[in-house]
Design the sequence.
């Protein structure tokens, strides 16, 4: 893999990526070496591509927590002349991802005149969930799903690690695995004994850790703990710059679309349930 170095001015001699997928792969591969602030922009861009496509320089900079000039330097580090050229690539992605479902919902609103607040909220969350699932379907490598299922199926005990917004995913997965007769431990004790519980994990077990930005520090610490114990670790997170990526043996990038600042768990639950059933199938075959 060739490494693309940037100059002190943030300029790159490499040709800019021609699609969002190419840009994402280039950043995820580590082929572009970025300083801290530009890496912060990269993480935001991968997690919030719609914001890059639709926002102003000032608005995007504020949401990403950087100066507008940093967006320009990030664009140039990828080979673009400036932010507007980078934004055009993100807008192409947005146009290509408009689904028939989105168009159908829009036509229903126009025809039936649904204007109630509840209808608008339901409409918006359905659209966001649909975008999330569609993006995950396109992005996730099915061979990696097979490998993750094998790692988890081979485990004597599966430890499920998550906090805050991600916790419902592991909670439901624990329920499903339990119904399927697969031994698992749901980390999230009200007693605060999770560190002690995880100390029993070993190389013959496996763990699944889930966290999205802003990453739960407890989840990161628990993932590091099981990794240090030699326990195989599968990760679900939202960016190649997530602190969980460094700890995981195998990781999946799942970015949930938001509506009015709230994110669903549609794509995350779809992947989690796929893994649960795939684990059970492998256990039965074995």
Sequence:
């Amino acid at each position: 893999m060739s490494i693309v170095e940037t100059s002190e001015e943030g300029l790159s001699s490499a040709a800019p990526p021609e699609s969002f997928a190419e840009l994402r792969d280039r950043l995820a591969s580590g082929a572009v070496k970025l300083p801290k602030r530009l890496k912060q922009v990269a993480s935001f861009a991968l997690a919030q591509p719609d914001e890059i496509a639709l926002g102003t320089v000032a608005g995007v900079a504020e949401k990403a927590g950087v100066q507008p000039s940093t967006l320009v330097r990030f664009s140039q580090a990828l080979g673009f002349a400036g932010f507007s050229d980078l934004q055009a690539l993100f807008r192409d992605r947005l146009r290509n991802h408009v689904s028939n479902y989105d168009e159908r919902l829009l036509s229903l609103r126009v025809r039936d005149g649904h204007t109630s607040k509840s209808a608008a909220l339901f409409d918006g969350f359905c659209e966001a969930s649909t975008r999330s699932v569609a993006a995950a379907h396109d992005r996730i490598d099915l061979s990696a799903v097979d490998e993750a299922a094998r790692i988890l199926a081979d485990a004597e005990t599966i430890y499920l690690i998550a906090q805050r917004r991600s916790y419902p995913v592991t909670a439901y997965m624990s329920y499903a695995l339990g119904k399927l007769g697969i031994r698992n431990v749901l980390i999230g004790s009200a007693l605060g004994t999770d560190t002690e519980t995880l100390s029993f994990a070993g190389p013959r077990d496996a763990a699944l850790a889930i966290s999205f930005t802003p990453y739960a520090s407890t989840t990161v610490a628990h993932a590091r703990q099981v990794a240090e114990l030699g326990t195989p670790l599968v990760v679900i997170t939202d960016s190649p710059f997530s602190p969980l990526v460094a700890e995981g043996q195998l990781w999946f990038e799942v970015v949930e679309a938001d509506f009015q600042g709230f994110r669903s768990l549609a794509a995350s639950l779809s992947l989690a349930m796929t893994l649960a059933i795939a684990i059970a199938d492998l256990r039965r075959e074995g």
Notes: The longest strand covers residues 158-162. The chain has three domains: 20-96, 100-139, 142-285. Residues 1-5 have pLDDT under 50 and may be disordered. The CA atoms of residues 136 and 271 lie 8 Å apart.
